[in-house]
Amino acid sequence: MKYLFTSESVSEGHPDKVCDRISDAVVDLYLSRDNAARTAIETMATTNRIIIAGETSCSAYVSQTEIEETVRNAVREIGYDQKGFSWQTVNIENLLHHQSCDIALGVDHDGAGDQGIMFGYAKKEQGFESACMPLAIYLANRILKDLADARHKGEIKGIEPDAKSQVTVIYEDGKPTGIAKVVLSTQHSDKLSQEDVREIAKKYIARNLPDGWLPEDKDILINPTGRFVIGGPDGDTGLTGRKIIVDNYGGYAPHGGGAFSGKDATKVDRSAAYILRYLAKNVVTAGLADECLLQLSYAIGIAEPLSFYINCNHTARVDEQKILKILREMTDLTPKGIINRLQLRRPIYTPTAAYGHFGRTPRSNGSFSWEKTDLAKELASCF
Q1: Cα–Cα distance measured from residue 289 to residue 307, given in angstroms and rounded to the nearest whole number
Q2: DSSP letters along 26-83, please?
Q3: How many Cβ atoms sit within 10 Å of the Cβ of residue 307?
Q4: E-assigned strands of the chain?
Q5: Would strands 81-82 and 85-86 be described as parallel, antiparallel, or unpaired?
Q6: What's the gap between Cα 26 and its chain centre?
Q7: How far is it, in rounded angstroms, from Cα 215 to Cα 23?
């Protein structure tokens, strides 16, 4: 059977991702002062204006000036210094307030910060087995990350921060065999022609696809509408948490509906999704299955999950329910247990705000700890 599957990604300069970056930078600011700080930060960005709102709880004092500096630095690091949106002149309105005592009551007793369902997923894709990610979203993220890195290093001129990518993978008998279409829209200086933009963009598409998988020119769509000079929050209003499918598995696996950015790890929308990715990736790395989907559910104020589900889509080499039982025995799935296992009370979240929370490389500072495969050997030994 042959079919196509498409996923999209957006760059750090996309209006929604600007907001995710700001929200996570403020989370990291609070955690750098108090590793037990709690945050639920929402950001909106539009032409020359940023509004941050939400709840915080922190034993240390964090000043308005420090918050504003953090917001400006986030915008500067992305690369926005344009007439309609500049880190230097943007108007910042801070509406943060203290966390609700009703929410704090449950979390103070190590309960979940909210009710909800969360999913984690991993899949071996031929040629990209170590990433354990669906290929379309993995490649879409990689193209944009490479383009942004080149922009930051000064390797390319005239390419601006706002960009989108979309990759359509060809599957035959469940295995990826090629790329049908690639779309890349990138903001650019008005000094660049569309031919210039196409030449630059095609280079970064080509070097991030497997050898021989670059589609024909007619199937590579670069800035399909033509000119893309006005971009970022000056061109479109951004909000935190609007790119949850981009953040996850590109639509290839279910999503519970909760955003990640702006939230500390007592919010199971974030922490439970991270532990489920960790467990699913270790199941696949251990060779117990080629694909693994896990789900947890929680109730606010209750520490233990209400349910735990597994589906290996007929790829399991051992009994699925035994895998689930062993995972439950090996892992404390309370919010406190997840936080301790993955060491989530650290200021590690800013790098997660763009190019996906999953399929990344664990960093020395603790970012992407959920991508480690240190449980795989122990899991394999149980069978």
Answers
A1: 21
A2: HHHHHHHH-TT-EEEEEEEEETTEEEEEEEEE-SS---HHHHHHHHHHHHHHHT-EET
A3: 9
A4: 2-10, 38-46, 49-57, 81-82, 85-86, 91-98, 116-123, 159-172, 175-188, 220-222, 238-239, 291-298, 307-311
A5: antiparallel
A6: 17
A7: 37
Predicted TM-score of the model (pTM): 0.96
Q: Answer for the pair 92, 66: CB distance below 8 angstroms, yes or no.
A: no
Do the beta carbons of residue 93 and residue 49 sit within 8 Å?
yes
Q: Which of 175, 173, 169 is nearest to 219 (CA)?
A: 169
133-154 pLDDT, tens per residue? 999 999 999 999 999 999 999 9
DSSP 286: T
- Residues 6 or more apart from 316 whose CB is under 8 A from it? 288, 289, 323
Task: Find the radius of gyration of the CA atoms of the chain.
Answer: 21
Phi, psi of 53 (to 5 degrees): -145, 170
Q: Is the dihedral of CA 193, 185, 189, 231 positive or negative?
A: positive
End-to-end alpha-carbon separation of the chain, Å?
33
Q: Are β-strands 38-46 and 307-311 bridged in parallel, bridged antiparallel, or unpaired?
A: unpaired
Q: Tokens 């035959």 identify what position?
A: 172
Q: How confident is the model at residue 227 (pLDDT cuts 50, 70, 90)?
A: confident
Query: Identity (one letter) of the amino acid at 273?
Result: A
Which residue in the block uniquely carries the two structure tokens 């890349």? 184
User: Three-state DSSP class for 278?
Assistant: helix
Cβ atoms 219, 182 nearer than 8 A: yes
In this structure, are strands 175-188 and 220-222 parallel, antiparallel, or unpaired? parallel
CB atoms within 10 A of CB 66: 14
pLDDT digits (tens, 9 = 90+) for 4-53: 999 999 999 999 999 999 999 999 999 999 999 999 999 999 999 999 99
For helices 320-330 and 268-285, angle between their N-to-C axes, nearest 10 degrees? 120
User: What are 299-346's pLDDT values in tens digits?
Assistant: 988 999 999 999 999 999 999 999 999 999 999 999 999 999 999 999
